[in-house]
Design a protein that fits this description.
The protein has one domain: Beta-galactosidase, Chain A, domain 5. It has two helices and 21 strands. It has a ten-stranded antiparallel beta sheet with strand order 6-7-8-9-21-17-16-11-14-13, covered by helices on one side. Strands 5, 10, 12, 15, 18, 19 and 20 form a seven-stranded antiparallel beta sheet that branches. With 300 residues, it is mainly beta.
């Protein structure tokens, strides 16, 4: 661990194990702004014109990885994370803690651990209710990926008719989703969404992802994140525990925890993601790409 200047922010915390490095901001946040090979490309997106900014009441995307609470609503979801966060390093765990949001009464924490040697990390997201009443929400972890890559989400395993008579999953669309947009590929084994720098309007879909993984490929590197799925839980957005969004500037991989009631005066919920970074060629037809992804996941 060391404290560095990054992207115009003078006090960022960098964790590195030699295989991967991760940079978290402390001048704003909680936010992880970088994940990549030491000295290599940042797999997370950085928003030009917003890097290094602090203060103010306008919500900024900044880039990187952030924690929200769902369902999405204005203004509740968009409380700005433009001010410093408290942080603590115990020799193996970095804890980022945002002051309680003035308009929601919710406190956000992100807890980070790197694997000792491999390019892997575990990320614990924690929401705590400091209101004198209970509130309903779902933890929502969003990762802005670097532009010009492709996101991959798994389809449910194929089963033949007439043996399979019941539906396998919801696929949830937003009013601005255009399924004919060429950035989408709706395959038998994979859903693919390509980020096209400078081109195309917003696109989004959500799924009930029982496999619990999603991936993003860029320049021969593959970022994988995983989060557990609870078949007994109720998820927001018509039952989505995974969502992906893109526009002309970036693409997001998003996981959601179950909806829950947080008790007054300290009720808390955690949502855990597991990240890994791999090298793989995800070119070719769908079966070739899906088989390559299965090999990546076996090593995740």
């Amino acid at each position: 661990m060391d404290v560095i200047s990054y992207g115009g922010w003078p006090r960022c915390v960098r964790l590195s194990n030699g295989a991967v490095d991760l940079v978290a901001t402390t001048d704003v946040g909680p936010r992880i702004i970088r994940f990549g090979r030491p000295g290599g490309k940042n797999l997370f997106g950085e928003i030009p014109g917003q890097m290094g900014l602090t203060g103010g009441q306008e919500w900024r995307l900044y880039g990187g990885h952030r924690l929200w609470h769902a369902p999405e609503q204005q203004p509740r979801t968009y409380f700005p994370d433009n001010n410093p966060v408290a942080w603590d390093w115990d020799g193996g765990r970095l804890l980022l803690r945002q002051p309680v949001e003035a308009t929601t009464g919710v406190e956000k924490q992100i807890e980070i651990r790197l694997d000792a040697q491999r390019p892997r990390a575990s990320i614990v997201h924690r929401l705590t209710n400091h209101n004198p009443w209970e509130i309903e929400l779902a933890p929502w972890a969003l990762t802005v990926m670097a532009p010009a890559g492709t996101a991959f989400l798994p389809q449910e395993p194929y089963a033949a008719h007439p043996e399979a008579l019941l539906p396998a999953r919801p696929v949830v669309l937003w009013p601005y989703t255009d399924m004919s947009d060429p950035r989408w590929s709706w395959g038998r084994r994979l859903i693919r969404l390509r980020q096209a720098p400078g081109g195309g309007g917003p696109q989004k879909c959500g799924i009930r992802n029982t496999a619990g993984w999603g991936a993003y490929a860029l320049d021969g590197q593959v970022f994988v994140k995983r989060a557990a799925f609870d078949p007994e839980a109720q998820y927001p957005d018509f039952g989505c525990n995974w969502e992906t969004f893109t526009n002309a500037d970036m693409l997001e991989l998003e996981t959601l925890g179950p909806l829950c009631l947080l008790a007054a005066d300290g009720g808390s919920v955690e949502h855990v993601e597991y990240w890994s970074l791999h090298e793989a060629d995800l070119a070719g037809d769908e079966d070739t790409v899906a088989d390559a992804l299965m090999r990546v996941l076996a090593d995740a």
